[in-house]
Write a structure and sequence with these properties.
The chain is 20% helix and 30% strand. It is built from 4 helices and 12 strands; from the N terminus they run αββββββββββββααα. The protein has helices at 2-18, 172-177, 183-190, 194-204; strands spanning 31-32, 35-36, 66-71, 85-91, 96-101, 107-113, 115-121, 127-133, 137-140, 145-150, 156-162, 170-171. The radius of gyration is 22 Å and the shape is globular.
């Protein structure tokens, strides 16, 4: 019995010794698909685990009348490696977060002010659409195209939460019209006419 208890105690101590409580991001180093390397524990402070940036409204004076304030590992180093992150959406009346996808995470949206029409499209091209009010939650499965549009006559606010410390982002409109992809090729793959494509490229900064 004593030998068994000693063995269990040894295994427990050995297991605990191999557990790493956290891996605060070393933002001075490069980021990899697995995240940032760990800052030395001796340099970690409580401020690495606190982020106050979501208390401030984002600037909605832009083409989409909306702002996204991220709280990812790059802004909130204590999240590194923990598989979660957050953000804030501010949408002026008529503001929109265009169709986009997060390749690395699922997302939950919580409306805290105003009214937001939100939806996503499944891989079978089924649309899931809902007008959300204060207190409503909506989830977007990982990798699926989704959007948010303010329906209120005043600024709508929502908080977003992700299942990754770096969920990634690709906005469809920017992917098509904010680069140097040839206009003819964009037309062939989207069925849009050349004039429309050039107009969108002009608005979003694309060339060619």
């Amino acid at each position: 019995m004593f030998k068994l208890l000693f063995l269990l105690a040894t295994l427990t101590l050995s297991s605990n010794a191999s557990v790493q409580d956290f891996c605060v991001a070393d933002l001075k180093g490069p980021e990899s698909p697995a995240g940032y390397s760990c800052k030395s524990v001796t340099n970690v402070t409580v401020d690495d685990f606190v982020f106050s940036g979501l208390s401030k409204a984002g600037n909605t004076a832009n083409i989409i009348k909306a702002a996204v304030t991220p709280a990812f590992a790059a802004q909130f180093p204590g999240l590194n490696g923990l598989g979660l992150s957050a953000g804030r959406l501010d949408l002026a009346p008529g503001g929109v977060i265009p169709f986009h996808t997060h390749p690395g995470a699922s997302e939950i949206l919580l409306v805290v002010q105003g009214q937001i029409t939100a939806g996503f499209v499944s891989s079978a091209n089924t649309v899931y659409l809902k007008t959300l009010k204060k207190g409503d939650l909506m989830v977007y499965p990982q990798g699926l195209l989704h959007f948010q549009l303010s329906d209120a006559g005043y600024t709508s606010v929502a908080y977003i939460f992700f299942s990754s410390s770096n969920p990634g982002l690709q906005i469809t409109d920017f992917a098509l019209f904010a680069n140097d992809l040839p206009t003819k090729l964009v037309g062939a793959t989207t069925f849009l006419d050349e004039a429309t494509i050039k107009k969108l490229k002009g608005v979003l900064g694309g060339t060619n």
